[in-house]
């Protein structure tokens, strides 16, 4: 009985910590987590196909995903501190959703999977804007 109670307690503490760090888990956050998983797997498969897969790259990619989640948590804490609702967190989540989608499309294109030209044009426009080209 005590073992079941301790597992339930740990689960409850974990959910409370997630709530504190990220706020309400809404649809945007679930979309981000899903895209992060898809990007993680697709990039790993791409490296396997190109014979560049290493455990160091895998853990580096995992560390980047964790840091992204930490940044979302920081955005949520700023929202709490500045009493802005969840606007900073939601903006951050949308930014990372676009980033993950960009990475998935880039990986698919590098694998030779046909990608609609409109998406490639959007990617090129974003790349040029980020590089500071007019």
Please sum up the structure shown.
With 134 residues, the protein is mainly alpha-helical.
Helix percent band: over 70%
Secondary structural class:
mainly alpha
Question: Per the principal axes of the C-alpha atoms, what is the gross shape?
Answer: globular
The separation of the N and C termini measures 66 Å
How many domains? 1
Strand content: under 5%
Number of strands: 0
Biggest sheet, in brief? none
Low-confidence stretches: none
The overall pLDDT, averaged over residues, is 87
Alpha-carbon Rg, integer: 18 Å
SSE order: HHHHH
Oligomer: single chain
Total number of helices: 5
What report would you give on this structure?
- This is Phage holin family protein.
- It is found in: Membrane.
- It is a multi-pass membrane protein.
- With 134 residues, this protein is an all-alpha fold.
- The chain has one domain.
- Helices cover 83% and strands 0% of the residues.
- Helix 2 (27-49) packs parallel to helix 4 (87-110).
- The longest helix is centred in the middle third of the chain and has 28 residues, at 55-82.
- The chain is globular, with a radius of gyration of 18 Å.
- 10% of the residues are buried.
- The model has no long low-confidence stretch (mean pLDDT 87).
What distinguishing features does this structure have?
134 residues; mainly alpha; 0% strand; transmembrane helix; Phage_holin_4_1
What's the arrangement of secondary structure elements?
Elements: H1 2-22, H2 27-49, H3 55-82, H4 87-110, H5 117-131
């Amino acid at each position: 009985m005590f073992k079941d109670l301790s597992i339930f307690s740990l689960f409850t503490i974990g959910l409370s910590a997630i709530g504190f760090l990220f706020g309400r888990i809404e649809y945007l956050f679930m979309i981000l987590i899903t895209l992060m998983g898809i990007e993680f797997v697709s990039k790993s498969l791409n490296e396997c196909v190109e014979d560049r897969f290493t455990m160091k790259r895998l853990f580096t990619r995992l560390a980047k995903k964790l840091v992204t989640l930490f940044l979302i948590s920081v955005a949520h804490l700023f929202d709490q501190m500045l009493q802005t609702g969840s606007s900073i967190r939601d903006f951050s989540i949308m930014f990372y959703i676009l980033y993950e989608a960009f990475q998935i499309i880039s990986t698919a294109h590098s694998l030779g999977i046909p990608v609609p030209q409109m998406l490639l044009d959007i990617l090129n426009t974003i790349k040029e804007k980020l590089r500071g080209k007019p």
